[in-house]
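Q: What structure does this chain adopt?
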Amino acid sequence: MKKMKRSARLVEMTQYLLFRPHTLIPLTTFADRYNSAKSSISEDLAIIKEVFEEERLGELLTLAGAAGGVKFIPKVSKAYSLQFIQGICRQLEQPERILPGGYMYMSDIMGQPLILNEVGKMFATAFASKDIDVVMTVETKGIPLAYATATFLNLPVVIVRRDNKVTEGSAVSINYVSGSNKRIQTMSLSRRALKEESRVLIIDDFMRVGGTVHGMMDLLQEFKATVKGVGVFVESGEVEEHLVEEYVSLAKLSGVDPRTKHITVEPGNYFSNGE
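A:
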């Protein structure tokens, strides 16, 4: 790449880092890319690091030594996340969202890239310190959230199917009890999709009792995998006890009255503790 002015180099370096989260980038990569001395690159990174921290965009970690470099860790503040989720809660409280059976329509919100990116960044922040290999979800509504989260963690996504597909090859299937209607259902995962003893982050869009998430946990035992965390966009607060004990929720559906069409949604347990 041709030699750039410092202002242009700072913009390009920032873009480079933002698109490669949780990736160790040696200083020589930037030095060669911009035909600049490592000392100049270090000064540029110090400026970027300061801006990231002041604007709370994330952390820029520096690792010293021959095998060192820099690593960008996307993070979003609890204060900003709370403000954003409170706006989502107001949208979810619209009376027309009530569906038969006490369910809630969320597909329009789940189809907005801006919202998905912000939610993905929140989950990435919540689980940034975990040692994770893959992000897992079950088809179909949880898929966009899983990919948004995986983008900011720079991890692959594994999708659990409701039934085995021929195109997936050999698969492991289990039966599980749906937490909401107590019906026996099936989920499967291709043997090629997940390595044994993987460390997994489970992401789901909605959790009523937790039967689906619990089913994924049981499925992961067949792969000798470890669940490092569970992230749920919206949880139901109308359930006395969930089948999953430890999880992070961003919003909580605490009340639905089909008669008056009144919905109450509040921030989830992620905001129970201050920043």
